[in-house]
Amino acid sequence: MGKFKLKLSFVIVSMTIIVVLATTSVSIWSSYQNFNDILMHNKIAVRENYVKEISAITKIYVQEKFQEPDMDKAIEPYMEQVADKLLDEMSIPFSAFIKSITVPLLILFITVMAFAVWIALKIVQPLKKISTDFEEGEAVRELEDINDWYDEAHSLKNVIQNMITCSESKISDLTNQLNLDSLTGIPNRRGMDQILNELILNRVPHSIVLIDLDDFKSINDTYGHTIGDEVLKAFANHMQVNIDKRGMCFRYGGEEFMVILPSTTIDVAIELAENLRIKQALLDTACGRPVTLSAGVTAFAANIKTSNQLITIADQALYKAKQSGRNCTCVINECSEKIIK
Fold first, then answer.
1. Which one from 68, 255, 271, 334 is the annotated catalytic residue?
2. 53 tagged catalytic
3. Residues 60-91 pLDDT 10s
4. Domains along the chain?
5. What is the pTM of this model?
6. CA distance 78 to 57
7. Which among 22, 115, 200, 205 is most buried, taking Cβ atoms within 10 Å?
8. How far is CA 321 from each of CA 14, 295, 313, 317, rounded to the nearest angstrom?
């Protein structure tokens, strides 16, 4: 069972509700606490003023009563003055109320904004990482390290991973189609040129064997191209089995093939070519008659600069083998030349 992933819409709505509820609750509680503190301070101040005013009025009233004992002095006017003053002092100024709640609300606002920025960064981070890795062509395994903690990022990562895997597979298939011969399934001349150029560029000692199936045109003319194709496929398989891991086999074109033998001396190359030639002459074929081959063998030398130079020498050797009656091997190595039958 796959790991549970949160929906981004669910995350955003849930966080919004939580933030609104938390903000509202904290604001109400903070306002209540501040307002209650204001009332308490105001109550204490009013009480102190009340005591002071009553004491002062009482003192004044007693003094006047002693000075004029015959006068009937009523205390009600004095008490009305005290009551009016106390009522004025009990009203809470709006500026005081605003001042008392501004700081808590400001702190709360900064906290909420910081939390919102943190959530936004957490949401953007996997998307940014996916985008960066995709633009830089990172491998699929690099995308696996991305923390796709919500469903949308997880789905996007999976789509990109599948797309990269599919693209790599298609590229691999196209590369094989470009470098492999469609009939025989062995590498074609494009792959051959790449290998030869690398060997010559790096000055790696090697030998090559250029092979041509003898009188192949008559097979096509007599038995048809379908039989001719079967002969070519059978020879390609026979060649690969005999060369094995000692070299690389290529279809040069038509009925011509090439074997590249890295780090191999010309004597070993001659031995392999002769072994292949002798076995090929004894094989049963799709056309029902023996199909022989001629081979031209040469080796890399210090004066060789390009693959075309080396192929030209091998082609000259193959031509001389054909001129010598076919079903033989001709070797051209620097200044020496010999025919092997």
1. 255
2. no
3. 666 666 665 555 555 556 556 655 665 555 55
4. 8-135 (no CATH), 189-340 (3.30.70.270)
5. 0.59
6. 6
7. 200
8. 85, 7, 13, 6
